[in-house]
Amino acid sequence: MNASATAPDRFVCPFCGLLCDDLPFPGTSAHLQAACPKAAEGWSAIRAGYAGEGARVDGAAVDMEVALRAAADALARARRPLIGGLGGDVQMMRAALALADRCGARIVHAHQAAAQRNLFALQGRGGVATTLAEARNRADLVVVVGGDVTRRFPRLLERLFVPAPVFVEAAARRLVLLGADRLEHAPAGVPVERIDCGGLDLFDAVATLRACCDGRLAERAAPAGFASLAERMKSSRYGLLLWAAGDLDFPGADLLVEELQQLLLGLNRETRWAALPLAGSAGDLTANAVAAWQTGFALPLAFAGGEVAYDPFPDYRDADLLLWLAVLPGLTFPEAARGVPTIAVAAPGLEPEGARIVMPAAVPGVHAAGHLVRSDGVVTLYAPRQDAAPLPAAAQVLTRILAAVETQPCR
Amino acid sequence: MPLTRLKGGRIVDPANGVDAVADLCFADGRIVAPPAGAAAREIDCTGMVLMAGGIDLHTHIGGGKVNIARTLLPEDHAPLHLESDIPLRSACGHAATPTLAAGYRYAQMGYTACFEPAMLPTNARQAHLEMGDTPIVDHGAYAMLGSDDFLLRLLAAEAPQAKIDDYVAWTLSATQAMGIKVVNPGGISAFKFNRRAFDLDDAHPHYGVTPRRILQALARAVANLGVPHPLHVHASNLGAAGNLATTLATMAAVEGLPLHLTHIQFHSYGTEGEFKFSSGAAQIAEAVNRLRNVSIDIGQIMFGQTVTCSGDSMAQQRNVGHATPKKTLLMDIECDAGCGVVPFRYRDQSYVNALQWAIGLELFLLVEDPWRIVLTTDHPNGAPFTSYPHLIRLLCDKAFRDEQFARLHPAARSMSLLPSLKREYSLAEIAVVTRAAPARLLGLADRGQLGAGAAADIAAYREQADREAMFAAPAWVFKDGVEVVREGRIQAAPQGATHVVRPEYDRAIERELAGFFGSHMTQAFAGFAIGDEELCEACNHGGRLHVHAWCRRA
Description:
Chain A: InterPro entries: DHS-like_NAD/FAD-binding_dom. The complex is a heterodimer. Chain A folds into 2 domains: 4-44 and 54-113 and 282-406, Rossmann fold, CATH 3.40.50.740; 130-275, Dimethylsulfoxide Reductase, domain 2, CATH 3.40.228. Chain A is 33% helix and 18% strand. Chain A is built from 13 helices and 17 strands. In chain A, strands 2-1-15-14-13-3-4-11-12 form a 9-stranded mixed sheet, with helices on one face. Chain A starts with 28 loop residues before the first helix and ends in a 5-residue tail after the last helix. Chain B is of the alpha/beta class. The interface between A and B is large, with 71 and 70 residues. Strand 5 of chain A pairs parallel with strand 18 of chain B, so a sheet runs across the interface.
């Protein structure tokens, strides 16, 4: 075990993409509730009081070795395996990709659809981004687009607005909501304004705002407040757009993100604006980052015959075996995968219903150390181990499955 | 490992003054003097040229901006069908090469070590994780400083040099780095304050310090700490017409301290001619020839699709309109630096691109001392590293160079002195600019050469008049004595080592840094440094750590 992995005095919270490292390690979920409801929810979900449950095959407790062998047999026999979930750390993802490559599997994160809203926009036209420290120290005008971003990231605004900013007067900062009615977790002391979209849907509202910023639209053609917001955006010294792709759950949402990024690129011709990406919960950024550096492609991927290909819209119903990886909470099991024979490498409490083989594994940052990618995609934190529960890291389990598969003739 | 004898090859080992047909022997991963008697393994190398493994001292192989570039361009990744006699991981890629493909392809070209030149301290974990997934080659990285708020605050407060030295040493240690790079000194920070250009003596809009002061402080720190690689400088005004004046002033600014100017092709532009864009290669080469403290790598461009990924967000903002395809990602990063990713297609019928190509070659041919020049394309910014064999042929073969030159935009041809440069690189000179010089510039005493005791990183090329074909596919490649490539086919994919330097420093700087993390940053200082155990995990528990330990000079 890594020496720094046992340092008990530093807790990196793995329960949302912000990866806060200023919270105390939770003894109980009640302890966390006050600090962060998302962390408390995650803590409850992983059933922190690990009772020593072992591996299971068809509901019966078995030795881990038996479960590993059964999993390897099933993977070797599967014709169209799919590795899904992918809520975990860098090492888990490395092992998952190696296994997918060996078995000719498809591999997809459970929240791929949300991740793709940002990804497709990036791959379409690019954009402008910033990180948490720049946002905290510089932003004088923050525009929140779409839903209430604080429901997914309860401490976001606390982390942005509570520390004293370095390059802007604290009192000069403003927060504007475009699309959302209110914020559940707004920090005290920052004025929040709401701009009414005047009956426009979100896409039209953003396109109208962009037209105002570009001077392409007469003031009277836009809803009240848009023209003055555009003026304030243009005169802001460092503005910030916030959205949570997970909230933009409608068809064509990637085009909305593309419009937001075009708005940012336009504003940057004269002043400085950027988006602070809000993602990374349940390991989606971690999984996509590792996939991209190893293969060139963000997820989903399809491995077959010694080739890897970008496979943007995999269908769970095509799979004849699902290997579900869940050592971080918050994954939604896909409806389309119900009925697909399932093997799970999962933290206690995160096993999907009806999995035929279950192999328990450690939550990174709780039962094992692990690397996780933060919401802004730049900072990777090494989350130390907190708890002495005798759970193997997911990567170790997958590596042992791979070793067992290698002794079998793969198709 | 038992003794292996490579028999009868032509050993081209300029570090040891060798260019002769002889046997080359190694055992246990090290070169040994050829003993009498038979070796356990003998390989006939008749007709082959034996060189030390290639060393790329400036190649963007790992870290956030490279990963953004990969993600940005799914259309640029084609499956790579790598010849191999062992099961390899599936690989693909072209310009922004993924890690697996980079390791395999470098080894297939006879390269055995690669250095990532722009590791942001706040992104160092990811850079090491990516390099850890780059098989076969040794690796290391230069930590990027110069637009980070901590250094700019120290300079604004006129902190003593000793304190700056401590901060630089702490950075090297905390991020497990091999050197220090500065990119557009202060300019990435100035861009966050909406400055669009930043020349050597401009005052930073917030801190008041100038790029000249930043350069001097960092070059002095690197020298004081005894870090073998000189300060690695991406100068101000990248890509701007007329930037040759800034580049010459940058050379003078360090007042004789060691200085490595990287991708100097992008910093060698004048303003003459109809299009107000001309070659400054002659002036730059004259200065490099005169200033013995200066080394360079070229950053040669090649025609075709690539992607530029740079820490220089300010310069990349200027390039948004040139993006091909039309997409760009700009980023401000964590009181640390920034980045800009702009896909680019260099065209021989573009006046500017054609002249950039010629300028790079002019520099290669006009700089006299091959020990102070390194062959790079600033992968992938000038071109993917896979174009190195073609570049080598351009340097070795005047007739071939002339043929290529004839295809350029006519106005660019009229503005280049390339046809008048008759020089052709010898094999020994190629060995210098691709191995011996980068090893010397990095302080890798046992790499880049084939003397007894050196690492058995060896490439055996079948000698051919067509140098491109020759250097594209070595017959044999050994990494630390392990046969990794035979006739282009991969034989083994060991984990390479990580190279780091660790100068000593006064730990008092850490108290100040802890305060800075509290006032500026969004992660705890206590978790920032990367420990050896963690680095080992990043490298898949397979690599070795080469600590090049230097103590601070008195």
